[in-house]
Amino acid sequence: MTAPLPFDIIVLGAGPAGATCAATAAEAGRRVAVVDEQPQAGGQVWRAPMGGFPGKGDADQASGDALRQRLVTSSATRLLGHRVWSVVRTETGYRVDTLGPDGPTALEAPSLVVATGAHERVVPFPGWTMPGVIGLAAATVLLKSHGVVPGRRLVVAGCGPLLAVVAAGLVKAGAEVAAVVDIAPRSAWLARLPAILGQPRLAARGLSWALAVAKAGVPMLSGHGVRRVEGGAAVARVVVGPVDAEGAPADGPERVFEADGLIVGHGLTTASEVTRLLRAEHRFDRLRGGWIPVIDGAFQTSLAGLYAIGDGAGIRGQAMASLSGEALGWHLAGRRAEAEAARGRMAAATPFSDAMAGLMAERPAQVRAIAPDTVVCRCEDVTRAEIDAAVAAGATQIDQLKHFTRCGMGPCQGRSCADTVQELMAARLGTTREAVGQWTGRPPLRPVPLGEVIGAFSYDDIPIPTPAPL
Amino acid sequence: MSARRLHAASPRVAVTIDGAPAMLPVGESLATALLCEGHVLLRHSPRDGTPRGAFCFMGACQECAILVDGIVRQACLTPVAAGMAIALKGAS
Ligand SMILES: Cc1cc2nc3c(=O)[nH]c(=O)nc-3n(C[C@H](O)[C@H](O)[C@H](O)COP(=O)(O)OP(=O)(O)OC[C@H]3O[C@@H](n4cnc5c(N)ncnc54)[C@H](O)[C@@H]3O)c2cc1C
Ligand code: FES
Question: How many domains, chain B?
């Protein structure tokens, strides 16, 4: 195996945050490598069309194309279609191991920028593991990148901006939407209106989404949530009912919608695997998506040379992701004035991003209302009752729970359930999320076929520390 | 779930699904291509054996892990290629 390729800066993630950071620093003369497992840069919001789909030709596609073009023109080395499966600290900085279409690659640099974005949170309900139930985030991928409508007649449910994006996207694509079911009462949107109106362009977009859905005559139920999904090997019916202001089921009539698919999501959680793996300091911030790395004014974590930006440093949305990438790019290039200016623009965008984050934050009461026999950990089929039983048997920390129940030990490594399980544990113990803690990050970051990785190793490559003098 | 493409599919290539010949659009995400062919059910959960299908379509949940040419792959991150042997039955 060859020695790791040397760079000044390695950027993990080529979404708005990572790609902007990489291009900015490269244009200012730094040697930059940027890695993403997707075949093209753009991240979630600006995901490029693939597999024969020409794209929707909308504003998001144009923004993504501009960023992709900027990255190509810059001197940054792009490792796309490369999954990062290992990140370690070395004496001089960080080493990153990737697996790409042509096999493994190793990189090394004194500065590592984590811009890995977010995962969607779906709070469990009976039937959520049935084929035909997919995430709101999944639906955005299908609609904007694959050009596919995922069903004949669909219920769209959950909360936050993605609910409106997906509902409008389906209506525009000519899909039959049986109902849009929003956990938030109408008042939650109104309360945030002043902050949202501070960003007229984005507010207008939100409004046009809502109008498109209303015009199509789709039933819109606010203050409602999914009670259960009925069917067998596929979705047949979605049962919804009223929820209170905290998202827990409330008294009132249920409504049943015939549908062959349910698209559902309850906000985003920060993808903090890399900073957790490196044991950087984290703190719990419900508004910003859960456990997030602690960063200073220059985006540096508690570890020297390790930075976090974009949704990976706390959910703040695309505008803030792009600005944080620009600010850090300038900062790493030693261009103080430009970095300062970008940070100033971030401050101006904060009220809007906080208003949106508020609509996407976890609702503890919703999680605490999960029924005992509902599966919480999809990988290992662990139910709420089994989690409660493990706590009753003495588990007080999230890592102990894992050994009691296997919850979080499956192939998704807790990505789908961490937030929910930690909340359930805190509820049962009558304690805080901080006291329960978070799962320790463990390699590999992503499952990789062992043969493909091992095939590239030779014994000479295994670093053996020089023996201490006797 | 009967999924529908909003565009003309890319040229199709021959693959096998559980040994039976099928034609899927080259370069499309395998999870999406299977969905459009009506394969909503991809596998069963290892512990309780409940039916599962692709859930996140972005590489996070692992629900789309199926056998492709004998290796466990996440279908949502695997582009369709000619000659793929796709196993849905038996994957868990
Ligand atoms: C599926 C989804 C859809 C969204 N749609 C919208 C939308 O329509 N409108 C909107 O305003 N906001 C949307 N959001 C919110 C949006 O994510 C953010 O506002 C914005 O994209 C954040 O940018 P980012 O650069 O921080 O992260 P992202 O855009 O999430 O980029 C992170 C990148 O890191 C890569 N990555 C992560 N881990 C690894 C690894 N181990 N190896 C290799 N690569 C890795 C990912 O592939 C991804 O490309 C969406 C979020 C999600 C999760
Ligand atoms: S559908 Fe979630 S990893 Fe593929």
Answer: 1
